[in-house]
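User: Um, what's this?
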Amino acid sequence: MDSNSKPLSRQTLLSDTAILIYLALFKLILHWLTSGGYGYFRDEFYYIAASQHLQWGYLEFPPMIALITAAARWLLGESLFALHFFPALAGALIVLLTGLMARELGGGRFAQIFAALAVIVAPIYLGIDSVLTMDSFDQLWWVMAAYIVLRLLKQDDPKLWLLFGLVAGLGLMTKLTLLYFGAALVVGLLLTPSRKHLASKWLWLGGLIAFACVLPYIGWEFVNGWPTLEFWKVYAGGKAYPVTPLEFLLQQITILHPLLLPLWLAGLGYYLFSKEGKTYRPLGIAYVALFVVFMLTQAKNYFLAPAYPMLFAAGALVIERFAGRPRWNWLKPSYVSFVIIGGILTAPLVLPVLPVETYIRLFGSSAKIQTERLQTGQLPQYFADRFGWRNLTATVAQVYKSLPPEDQAKACIFASNYGEAGAINFFGKAYGLPQAISGHNQYYLWGPGNCTGELIITVGVPQQDVESGFNSVTVAATAKCKYCMPFESDLHILICRGLKGSIQELWPGVRNYS
């Protein structure tokens, strides 16, 4: 057989596409190897619970994350590796797509590899893709949508709006923030000659496809009285950390890695000011619009993260061409080396690879970037929320087992938030605990279940909040936690007997949207 006809020739294995796949696989394997560090993240218990109550919507999120979690549990189980499998895969696909965007812009091997490498190095993607969260998939849909728009503008092929609509619809069924990208893109189209696409039937058909995808979620909201609108009203008014415009900018530089600042600024400049980038100017304007809106609304810093891969792609192209000049040949190896070394040094800030005490000793409070109005302890919140759950469940189980059999039969567990309720339900199966209920967010909508109120074990609820509602309240135990968030440490476990009234009648009073 002729060597050139072999499916895996040396030329194929060393092609630009192959190298991009290797880089994507590197990120994938990196997350798989570190997937067991520290423990289950708070929100992962929530998504597991949602996957056990499959429906078309939930208070804080559309149904996609519950479906993905259900698929992971069905295919792989409930281990940390199983839950982190699909987020890692999503992150790897973003690496590949970013390299392909650089290629579409006209970038050679260096531009493609460097753009993909930037995604691997950036702390925000390393951190988000290391846990089960809707943000990993939200970012994937954003990047996929940007890639489609880039090709659409390059080829002037309006039929690609159909594919964009499908991706946007799937993205909206994952997280509603893709609405911001769509709105910003419209601004970009309006302010450039590409506004002609707004009159294209294909764009409007794509919009109908997106609407059809999200229609079941809208139906769920309607049937349930639009609870998400009420949740976001409460959330925006009290939970998000109020950053100043300067803080927002500095956080963007930090979460993307300071060494990558020249890269994405070069990419932004390419879209906004270069002659070659004129075709793709709607993407640059869209980024500026997103930055301004998120900054003014004091959004969490990672809301803008999905917009940077398209800047990395363009920035890598700019650097490739600039460094192609004889006097600047040194720039490519030097910049890449600095980025790789910088990425290695900062990776432990967001990946659970160091012993906890080592992490605290090396980084301490310097690793914390505030995104919510919550007091933090020795660890930043994204690590602290992985500690204490097993011990909490074991403490609750001790209290439950201390009850006489007749009391155990009628006992129910009420947790103050979804993290506690989810953890108790996840780990409590080994102890034979009844299902925990809560008034926090979606747990409130799921209701009190079979709980009668005769005997309730409360977790994390202040004693003064329940004393007036029961005939008897006793502090049975205290759950301690060294590394978790301060509000999850020293939690009182109360035994409450004799609810004064019907639990169904009193349930609306326990609602806590936050």
Q: What stands out?
A: The chain has a mean pLDDT of 93. The chain is about 60% helix and 5% strand. The CA atoms of residues 73 and 82 lie 7 Å apart. The two ends are 66 Å apart (CA to CA).
